[in-house]
From TrEMBL:
Name the record gives this protein: DUF5666 domain-containing protein
PROSITE patterns: PROKAR_LIPOPROTEIN
Range of residues in the leader sequence: 1-29
Top-level taxonomy: Bacteria, Pseudomonadati, Pseudomonadota, Betaproteobacteria, Burkholderiales
Recorded superkingdom: Bacteria
Organism of derivation: Ramlibacter monticola
Keywords: Signal
Chain intervals for the UniProt region annotation (Disordered): 577-625
Compositional bias (Basic and acidic residues): 615-625
Keyword check for Signal: yes
Amino acid sequence: MRKSEARGWAMRRILPVALVLAVAAGLSACGGGGGGGETGAAPAPATPVTATDTTMSSGVITAFGSVFVNGHRFRTERARVIDDDTGAETTGAAGLEVGMVVDVKHRGRDDRDEAEADELHVHPLARGFVDAKDDAAATVTVMGQVVQLSSGTGFSDRRACVSATVNPCAPIISAEGLVATTSVAGTATTTTTPGNYVTVNGFLFDSASSDIVATLVSVSDPPSGNSRANFKAEGVVSVVTTGTSTGTTTGTVGTTTVSINGLTLDLSKAVCRARGSPVDCASAFANGDIVSAGSATAPALPATLLVADFARKVNKVPLEEAGATVEVEGIVSSVNGTASFVVRGIVIDVGGLPAGTPLPNVGDEVRVIGTLAADGASVQATSLRIEAEVEDAKLALKGNVTGVTPSGTNTFLVTVLGQDVTVDANTRLKDVSVRGWDRRDPTANPFNITTFQTYLAASASQTVLVVAERRAGALVAKSLTILPASTVAALAGRVDATPAPVNSTVTGTPTVFFVGGVEVHADPAAIVKVDRRGATTPTTIAAGDQVVVTGTFANDVLTVGPVPSRDNRVINLGLLLDDDDDDRGRGGNSGPGNGNGNGNGNGNGNGNGNSGRGGGHDRHDRGLF
């Protein structure tokens, strides 16, 4: 997949980001916990993810009370938590957050409810200042890496000012709150003000591109210590320039550099490692390798050059022993017919799966169990589960829980805004009702699927934000976050075609439409569209429009009154348009496709080659309007 193709694919998946972030940022409550990672019922499981002798599970943390990853509960009482960049070790889960990507070495089998974790390895993909933001594309740039945000991206804010008693700052709960680096030219010098310092967890989208799909963006104060990973980037090497080696493994002199997307790494002072052993930086890396590099010292901003203290070659598969069993979660970046596909740069060989097994498309989110091949970069799949398909429809609901009904082992039906939503072990669970957006202490916040019903019943707040996908008529929650109690209800999603919207032009007579089955009565005076400068103008509602609705919910109707405000309005984001008709990529099998960006946990869109115009090359998506 070319980089431009990946960008076009990502753009078609952006609508849910705007919807969910608008809900999070625009309401009086304190935001949401993000979806993504995993979903509940698999739309097309190939073979059940069941009994194996798996020794490594790699995926997103979805809940605490122990640690939930890939739907499994891992006990962490005696586990070592290892930062792969610094080598620092801690015990327990206190330093972990929902949304982090971790590699869990564990004991036990994947068909059991619990396993005991021996090690949890963490390795964020970027640490540094936000140098640029593109609100239309829902991206930020950190350490030269383009970070794709989606409805699956969680946010946390660790800055000291959030909990300060004097002049506290509001927590950053979405991309809208992030500040990018600015430079102002003076008569003699240029003044540069750094953007927010962030740590980015997520997945590399494509082995041929260093684009990151973020699962968690954690904001903090700039580092004051001398950790060699204060400023860090991880990605695929695209350019190698070799200098003169000193003949040692402590670095090189001259012009040895490698490039990762928009960042050049100067390795003249670096200690380089591969497979845990020191290597000569002059010959350590080649194009296509994944490299993690960092420095204790901040680069000049915006970051385009980093004088690295360390650089290490990262294995695509988190185990090195051929024949070991590994479980990997991620987004499919390319498909090679019916033979293989690529997830997180790892080639997944599907030849050993049963005949007729449904295979994923580009953009699908999958969970794979298999055996590590001798090359250390591919996996022979023994089990495949499609966790989220590109055509899954996204819906965000904010309101009070009116019912919780067990529907199976660790599975519940939760009613919000009159809609029944399935919650299970793959749903990301978070409670921000007491301490605000950032409540990271798992010992004080054991909110997980095993405690779900009793925890929610005992909560002082019954207001939740649910991000869900509709599959075969059923809503499945990707995330559920308990918010501070509120009487404001909210809804974000696509306007239903049936029943058709009925627009009104008279204040006092509501426009009536449905979003994900939720009935909305909105006074036309409170229905607006927003341009790129933030200006609002009146508009009407059409089927397929992406909308964010805030108002009051009663008698199964979400009502928006005539006076628009943050808590009472309809924002119509329109359709996600695509104006490139010249280069359509893979091509579809069933019509032109609508490119409407329905979304999954990492943002999706139609046009995956099976039901639309295809992946597309060099598209020029025009954003949200």
